[in-house]
Structures are given as C-alpha cells and as structure tokens.
Design a protein that fits this description.
Pfam families: FMN_bind_2 (PF04299). Keywords: Hydrolase, Protease. One of its GO terms (biological process) is proteolysis. It is a single chain. The protein is an alpha+beta fold. It has one domain (about 5-170): Pnp Oxidase, Chain A, CATH 2.30.110. It is about 30% helix and about 35% strand. The chain has a seven-stranded antiparallel beta sheet. α5 packs antiparallel against α6 (about 190-200). It is elongated.
Length: about 200
C-alpha cells in the first residue's frame, strides 16, 4: 500500500486497537491463477506462543480455499472511517481529496483443525453477542445447527508485515485542519463525523 511518510501509522498500539475495532476485513489470495477476495470477520488474537496472529473462517464451498495449499501468501485488508474532503474548506485554492484509515496485513495462512475452528467460532459469537438482550451461545446450539457450523474452514494467518495508513489532513495547518473538522461535522454523515473525531484525536 502506497503511503507517504506523513500518513504512516507506526504505533503498534494504535494499529492493534484499529484491527480490533474494524475486524470485518477482506481476505485476498490467488487461486487457480486468479485473485480472489472474501469479506469476512478476521480477528486479531494471540496464539499459544504469545505471537499476534489473525483468525477467521470461510465456507468449505468457497473456492478461494483451494489456493491456500498451493500458495499460502495472503493479504487481509481492513478499512476504517473515510470521507471526501472538499477543497472549498481551505482558505486557499487546492484539489479535493479523501481522508481515510486503512491497514493491510500480509501473512501466511494455514487451515486449522475442526475442534480449534469451533472454539474460534465460540469466541467470535461471544464477542458480538455481548450486547444482546438474549445472547446466542454456540454451546447452546442444537446438533442439527452445529452440522451447518461444521461447513467452515477455520484458519490462522501468521503475520509477516503490517502497513497502516492514517490519512487525516496532517499536511494542513492548524486553521485549515480545524475548519475541515467543522465542515465534516456539519455533513451529519456518520462516516464523515467519525473521520472528524479521529482528526480531533490527532491534533488537540
């Protein structure tokens, strides 16, 4: 991912927080000579050796998995808030742009055994059911329903490289920076407001 130095996020804790808060990603690999991509939750976890990895699962019917055996190299893409930035918000002439936060994780994927995949599924469901009034638990599902759950491949990705971009108008002076935040908040667009909030954290 091309990222000018001014926009690079090299803070491990910042990246870790981002991945945990934006874990619905895109898993990309090459299968049978073609690029394949699947939109799925991919969770940052720590393995038994204390090393950070990514975990997730895909359907056994998904042909993308055919490529894991021939080439274990994968890319996981995670996107955060993003918004159009109008150059009319500056006090000088310039071109419009786009502010965004994104993380690319490169690594090597391996399919895990069924028992481990089910444990991962339990943890995933517990995470997203935490705020439910009547939370679902994998342990409480019937044998019939669990047969459906066994139609997945669980996987782990050993992380080789992380590239993180936080493009939030860092190249603007304080006056224009502040004005961009104000204009983003005026839009009443949730994504634009989220960008404004992130910009507020970067320059107080």
């Amino acid at each position: 991912m091309y990222t000018p130095k001014i926009y690079k996020d090299e803070d491990p804790e910042s990246i870790r927080t981002f991945l945990k808060e934006n874990s619905f990603g895109i898993l990309i690999n090459q299968t049978n000579g073609r690029l394949c991509a699947t939109h799925i939750p991919i969770e940052l976890e720590v393995n038994a050796d204390g090393k950070e990895i990514l975990q997730g699962h895909i359907s056994k019917l998904n042909p993308q998995a055919d490529g894991f055996a021939e080439n274990d190299q994968v890319l996981a893409v995670f996107s955060g808030p993003h918004s159009y930035i109008s150059s009319s918000w500056y006090d000088h002439e310039n071109v419009p742009t786009w502010n965004y936060i994104a993380v690319h994780v490169y690594g090597r994927i391996k399919i895990i055994d069924e028992a481990t995949a089910i444990e991962q599924l339990k943890k995933l469901v517990d995470k997203y059911e935490a705020g439910s009034e009547n939370p679902v638990r994998v342990e409480d599902l019937s044998a019939k329903t669990m047969r459906e759950a066994r139609g997945i491949f669980g996987f782990e990705i050993e992380i080789d490289e992380i590239q993180a971009t936080k493009k939030l108008s860092q190249n603007r002076d304080d006056h224009n920076y502040s004005n961009i935040i104000t204009e983003l908040e005026k839009t009443e667009n949730p994504m634009a407001i989220a960008v404004a909030k992130e910009m507020g954290k970067c320059r107080k």
